[in-house]
Design brief:
With 395 residues, this protein is α+β, with helices and mostly antiparallel strands. It has two domains: 222 residues, HIT-like (HIT family, subunit A, 2-Layer Sandwich), CATH 3.30.428.10; 157 residues, HIT family, subunit A. The protein is 22% helix and 23% strand. The longest helix has 19 residues. It is globular, with a radius of gyration of 21 Å.
């Protein structure tokens, strides 16, 4: 006799562009959120996660580098994470009779808390599924103070964003409809994570390719919610303080008048920056000053989906094989310096030829003093040609 699957009641919310959000939990209490495409054929019911899981790990610890003030997280549980599994053991695929993965049901887009995160909960949850932080940060003033052998619990949040139930691919291999769903998920999670106590910055990103260090071939990205303002953003705040609050407006104007624009729409412009460090480096900037995904209007989100896909497919058309990259969505801090910082994509790749990578050797790694081998104008011309060679993305 066949046993009917058990279903869990998911909290359902209608979002923009016809996307439907269904929130539930995994067996150990971690949040799991499904985002259904507009017009999705998936049923409303979601299977319960019936696994028996080990207790959630203690939240990691971070130590301060007294020479720079930077906080370094020591997440030792990440040493045991899965490395390049086969399709039948993919932890991001929907669960099956032989694969007890992280996602119980078939899905369009799924977001869940990382099982071994770099940043974890501050307080024990009501169900007792997350341990309490031993020594949480005491606010930004506490984290920005500098001293010898300072430690704090790495309070924050790390989430996995599955772009597709398929085993292989990337953001760039998705349809326009699916890309729009992911953008809606990024916006929804940015708003939710920004509202959590102690969160100072939210960072969505995609690592793509083994050359970048990817451990799962499944098309996915991540979102980090930090308890501090990241070092890169602190330097940006210093530049804005020295040059003026309209810095991004002036950057956009200068880049739009240059030879470095690779793609442009009504609401977004993609360009190779004037002082690009990497062999392949592209920034994508909204024309309107917005701090993060949650502040984008529907028109900006709608245009971003096909435009971003066009950019990524152009990147892959540069060579005969797909290009490894980091797609980093820089967003303004949640509280400090928010007004002056405009959200932007920074896509970088170490690939400097079909069979060559740029390695960060002595000067770059030790001194952060960069030498670039390719002029930004030349890189932009090649990328424009590559983008022109790929079909326009469709729904």
């Amino acid at each position: 006799m066949e046993i009917a699957p058990e279903f869990v009641a998911a909290e359902t919310t209608a979002l923009s562009a016809g996307v439907v959000k269904r929130a539930t939990h995994l067996a150990d209490g971690r949040d799991l959120i499904y985002y259904d495409d507009a017009g999705s054929t998936l049923p409303a019911e979601r299977s319960i996660d019936a696994r028996t899981l080990d207790p959630r790990p203690d939240t990691a610890t971070m130590r301060q580098d007294v020479l720079t003030g930077d906080w370094i997280t020591f997440a030792t549980k990440r040493q045991t994470r899965v490395m390049m599994p086969s399709a039948d053991a993919d932890p991001l695929a929907p669960q099956s009779a032989t694969n007890p993965s992280e996602v119980p049901s078939r899905y369009d887009v799924a977001v869940f808390e990382n099982r071994s995160p770099s940043f974890g909960p501050a307080l024990a949850e009501a169900a007792g599924t997350a341990p309490e932080a031993v020594d949480p940060p005491r606010g930004l003033d506490d984290l920005e103070a500098i001293g010898l052998e300072r430690t704090r619990t790495s309070v924050g949040r790390c989430e996995v964003v599955c772009f597709s139930p398929e085993h292989a691919g990337s953001f760039g291999t998705q349809s326009v409809t699916r890309a729009r769903t992911v953008i809606e998920a990024w916006a929804d999670r940015t708003a939710a994570l920004s509202a959590l106590p102690g969160i100072e910055q939210v960072f969505p990103f995609e690592n793509r390719g083994e050359a970048i260090g990817v451990t799962l071939p499944h098309p996915h990205g991540q979102i980090y919610a930090y308890p501090y303002v990241t070092p890169r953003t602190q330097r940006l705040r210093e530049s804005i303080a020295r040059t003026g609050a309209d810095l991004f407006e002036r950057i956009l104007d200068a880049e739009q008048r240059s030879e470095r624009v690779v793609l442009q729409g009504e609401h977004w412009t993609a360009y190779v920056p004037f002082a690009a460090r990497w062999p392949l480096e592209v920034q994508l900037l909204p024309h309107r000053h917005v701090p993060d995904f949650s502040a984008l209007d529907d028109a900006e989100r709608d245009e971003l989906a096909p435009l971003y896909l066009n950019l990524l497919r152009g990147v892959d058309a540069l060579y005969e094989t797909p290009t490894a990259y980091i797609a980093a969505w820089h967003q303004a801090p949640v509280h400090v310096g928010r007004d002056g910082i405009r959200m932007r994509l920074e896509l970088t790749s170490p690939r400097r030829a079909a069979d060559k990578l740029k390695f960060l050797a002595g000067s770059e790694s030790a001194m952060s003093a960069w030498t670039a081998e390719i002029l930004p104008e030349d890189a932009a011309a090649r990328l424009r040609d590559a983008i022109a060679s790929v079909p326009t993305p469709t729904a």
